[in-house]
Design goal:
- The mean pLDDT is 86.
- Helices cover 69% and strands 3% of the residues.
- It contains four helices and two strands; from the N terminus they run ααββαα.
- The termini are far apart.
- The protein is an all-alpha fold.
Length: 159
């Protein structure tokens, strides 16, 4: 049950909550659709972002035998037992977040709102603090293996 709670919480916060907040602060009516070229670009980004996040979650559950979701040093779901260095984790140490960011960029393009951009910027700041906390935990859990991985693979993407 604790494992399901982490996934449900992740969905509610990242797939529904943050985009709903972006929509609310944008002042756009519901439903809202931008002009066709922007709608297509935004839709593709949202789908790609969700697919990347789901791939990373499934890979972590299958190979790592756990879930990454610690919320500011509070375990929300069982921690992974193995350091993830393959699959989507060979390109990014945080492919789930990269997927969330791509998804959110799609939402921002859909809404075409500076207010949505502000929500995204605040989200990035909070999640960067969270990621730094997770990195300390991963170093404690996996030691030199994680430090070596950290030198080889960027936190998000592009070194």
């Amino acid at each position: 049950m604790k494992n399901a709670f982490g996934y449900i919480l992740g969905f509610l916060v990242f797939v529904a909550g943050i985009p709903a907040l972006m929509w609310w602060v944008s002042g756009r009516p519901f439903p809202w659709a931008p002009a066709l070229p922007w709608a297509i670009i935004a839709g593709v980004l949202m789908v790609v972002g969700l697919c990347l996040s789901i791939w990373a979650i499934v890979h972590m559950k299958k190979v790592g035998e756990g879930n990454p979701f610690d919320a500011y040093n509070h375990e929300v779901a069982p921690r992974t037992k193995h350091l993830m260095t393959d699959g989507p984790y060979r390109f990014s140490r945080n492919p789930m977040l990269v997927g969330v960011y791509i998804y959110d960029i799609g939402v921002m393009l859909w809404l075409m709102s500076w207010w949505a951009l502000l929500v995204f910027a605040i989200e990035v700041v909070f999640l960067t603090v969270q990621v730094r906390s997770e990195e300390k935990r991963l170093e404690a859990d996996f030691g030199d293996e994680y430090r070596k991985y950290k030198q080889q693979v960027p936190r998000y993407f592009l070194r």
